[in-house]
# Entry
Amino acid sequence: MNAPLLRLYIAGKSLSSQRAEQNLDKIRSLVAAHFTFEIVDVLERPELAEKAGILATPTLAYEHTERPRRIVGDISDIKKILEFLGIEGKEEMQ
Amino acid sequence: MNDDAELQIPDVLERVRTGVDAFDELVMGGLPRARTTVVGGTPGSGKTIFAAQFLAHGIQNYGEHGVLVTFEESPADIEANMRSFGWDFAKWRKEGRLAVVDASPPTNDEIVIGDFDLAGLLSRIEHAVKSVNAKRIVLDSLTQLFDHFLGDSAVLRREVFRISGALKKSGLTVLMTAERNAEYGEITRHRLEEFVADNVVILRNVLQREKRRRTIEVLKMRGSHHVEGEAPFTILTDHGFVAVPLSSLRLEQQSSNLRVTSGNPAIDEMCGGGFFRDSVTLVSGATGTGKTLLVTNFLAGGVAAGERAILFGYEESRGQLFRNAAGWGVDFDAMETEQKLKVVCLYPEAQGLADHLVMIQNLVDELKPNRIAIDSISALERVAADVGFREFLISLTSFIKKREIAGLYTATSKSLVGGETASEQHISTLTDSIILLRYMQDQDIMHRGLMVLKMRGSEHAKEIRRFTIDGRGMHLGEPFKRAPNVFSSGTPESYTL
# Structure
């Protein structure tokens, strides 16, 4: 089975998008083994934003098959994010 | 400042017609191009229909493609709803004349952590604009977007301002809808109009005397003039939004000197040769004084002169009107068969006054009659409160004169002897001519009297003529020599005949 996908929608080099990318790197370093990661720049790929129905950037989408979840914002509070994604336990598994 | 600068004419803003003709008149030809207009209204006030008509009109009549960004209803719902107005959004989408951005609330969980912007939305909108080369764009409704990100309204204000700016810069004419909590008071929830709107339009749906009264008001037009005040409107299947123009309330129609017959030679004579062709005459009197007979004569006289006539009856049924006419020797049946006459009978309460007005206008434009009678105007007064009724009268009168047809209204006075109706107060300054029918008491006998009170632009007889009604109609007799005051309902003085 493939690892679940975390996809981050950003808008070019805006400040909040840059911060979100940095924060995603931190998350990746914590849970890399259990997730795959993808970054979509909505300025370059508006059709993907359309398909996903993205309004705000940055948005981190957890493409869970049964319970997809989204976090809007620069995902600065990493602890809270892991909680929301329901993956707090994975940190300890590292 | 030198003289040259003072003489400079400010740039005239190019106008984008909305498809609501009367509204475009209020705003000097349409919404200013490349500006943002916020249309505010309570739920059910017609915001989405107004916005959709703006898009549909551009697509159908001006080759201006559009983008619809929906934050509330799903695109499928909107497409289904708009089909009843004759707007095929689905077809236009397939033809590449319309793009829809579905920003309705997502079904999945979402939280906000940290700072964000709406670049995602803007990029989707810009993508849609580019894909159909749009000139018009609707965001419906902004309030829903704010509610989605409740608690971040400062961010939203900044972002919506940015989106509005980016769209205007691309030359798009932007229409945003916004919710209101009450018909009067705060302009929109979240006070959206304050930071984003060049123009503000308010739609209202007010309950008055148990009837809905819809109005549209232009609150603000940055850098240009507009007509102030609320204009009534209605929403019709197949038409959409139909407003009643306030600007045409100025009665500036050309009056012609052409005379047409009232249907009664003696009354023609009293009026100085008949009614004017594009004038409206009010016949006022208590019940049973002969108003409907005058209407019947008016219609029959027109038909006999080769004209076409239309009657809107709000008091009596068709059968009753036809029987009355037959009793006076007039055959409405034959006239309708020859398509010289159309009789339309309706309960006044069947619809709002704006709907009545639009219905009259549509039938007149379809059948193109030379004369029109409304029997009675006071029955319609039951439908709406003062303002609504006055607007209706003004609009109807101005419409009749614009079409250069002769109009006859009847009004029923409440008291049997003398007295004045509210309709008279409303209408006496609007109509060109007024004919009073009165009961006049002489000792033990009740006579009927007729006088021409007013005849704009013409001499008319000043006396009060007695008249009788029999199986051949109305017969005018000698003038009263000393008549009681026809305006007071008090005890008449004795007078000699």
Q: What stands out?
A: Chain B has two domains: 9-247, 259-479. The longest helix of chain B spans residues 153-169. The domain at 9-247 of chain B is CATH 3.40.50.300 (Rossmann fold).
